[in-house]
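Anyone able to model this chain together with oxalic acid?
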Amino acid sequence: MPELENCENEQVSPRLLKDSPQLKRQCLQMRHYRVIYGDIGLLPENVQSYVEENVRLCRPDNVHICDGSERENDLLTYVLQKDGILKKLPKYENCWLARTDPADVARVERLTYISTELKRDTVPTPKNGAVSQLGNWMSPADMDNELNIRFPECMKGRTMYVIPFSMGPVGSPLSKIGIQLTDSAYVVASMRIMTRMGSNVLAALNGGQFVKCLHSVGRPLPLTAPVHNNWPCDPKMTLVAHFQERNEICSFGSGYGGNSLLGKKCFALRIGSKLAQKEGWFAEHMLILGLENSKGEKKYIAAAFPSACGKTNLAMMTSSLPEYKVTCVGDDIAWMRFDESGQLRAINPENGFFGVAPGTSNKTNPCAMETIKSNTVFTNVAETSDGGIFWEGLEKEMSSEVEITSWLGDEHWSKEKSQKPAAHPNSRFCAPASQCPILDSEWENPKGVPIDAIIFGGRRPEGVPLVYESFNWQHGVFIGASMRSEATAAAEHKAKSLMHDPFAMRPFFGYNFGDYLKHWLSFQEKNELNLPKIFHVNWFRKDSKGQFMWPGFGENSRVLDWIFKRINNEDIAQETAIGLVPKFESLNLDGLSQQVDLKALFSLPREFWQEEVKALDKYFDDQVNVDLPPQILEELRNLDERVKKL
Ligand code: OXD
Ligand code: MN
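re: yes, here you go
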């Protein structure tokens, strides 16, 4: 095991410290905690103060300043194995399995808050006292009280890790820097994959501003109650707070994914969307893919789908049309900004994939399977007796000889006899982007990639056609606002219920959704901008027998082909009540793996669309109320008129 650096415990006069910043730095290392890794004196002054302030609050025994090195990673995996949190998966190279407390398995939306002085800056006021579905607000003063119940001494007996990280390529003008303080080594190991983390980030920070990210699992030592699965957490006290006015995130009680890897949803979307509104750009829940045809012509597309709707599969798609090659820039988040020539450009602020494991296989996503063969942390998947992993969807890809141990530790799991799935439905792989075999060559271009189209989509079993294009930007914004999808296991909601999920951002808005819509609409007033075309897709329509009407996965390239040609303004679209759909002969169906009924796939049942208009009207009226921009209402009225004529 690597050597640790030791310091003495010692008390130093506060007056002396005040007089000499240099002495203060040296003495900091010798207070009531030990700096066991790194040199606190080398941190920029503003980072040092942030660390110091929270050391005083959380009282960790040790402080570890992350440098992102291999040596550090070896140390962390050693500690995590010793603590029983990570288990090596010998079948693969440098792959690890973590199993959480079964009470800490997903994002907790109901415990996730945005704090602003004015409630209306966070959420629209719903009609008739209804509860907002567009975010949770708490005043900064009340939130500070909540945090004061939780954070004091919460890291006693533990190590506080200081993680300097960059969202986006280090030094890109589109990137932003955060400092996360956490008492979870699992979080450090995951942040190392999901962000650019380490000493070079501090150099790029160069004394500038950063987003403050404080995280604790909330289980100081010695423990006062048992920990399940060696996974410390405190579900009863879990709280994820965002202070928009001070660019600060505080998360308590959960070690899982979006609750604890604060660069992802908390920073890149909730804090990010507010920064984007202020600074004139977009922080969106979108994948970014490159699409190149056989003539070498290339387009980049950003696509928003709710959690667990196949974003990773689309971002890494193997095209079934041989004339197209898909490349991946990102699978979850896009930061986009118009450049000086009016072209929208996007970066993926992340550095890895935190993908939903179940359903991923060599059939559905061979590139993801290749990506996760090494250097990957798996969480809540099942384990096989030959030292590998298993989840629902891999049945045909493993030998019948091996035994499966479920994520809950059921050692002889079998589909037939076990009541529960082998892997948790929200189990994940966390893998470096650099391992993706189809990673786009421009994915780290500090200027971003040029975006030619934006796609919105969701799981819509009924009524919504395979693809349609908006009439214009404003209509496109309306389509984004109108997104609905079946709930999935990524958060605590019941699967299969149809939820409104505008822009796939419902759990991630960092400010009032009405203002968010105004922000999107404002770009149509800027004539100098080359606004991308906007589309809506639905791979999930079912027939009367409950069968999917479209094969999906690689066959979705046929839809991308149509979108590609529409970006080039080819005359292959026909107008309908809801938007432009393909002239049927323009969809390339050569060699399609399944017979499809195009008429049914594109049908627009009048009753369905009338109900849809009603549901949207009610949703906008109840939930967005007076904050709904009039342009969205105008689009809804226009849709209503067109649907009447169906
Ligand atoms: C995710 C999510 O983890 O959207 O990407 O829940
Ligand atoms: Mn997501």
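Residues 107, 257-258, 307, 332, 354, 490 surround oxalic acid (ligand 1) (CB under 6 Å).
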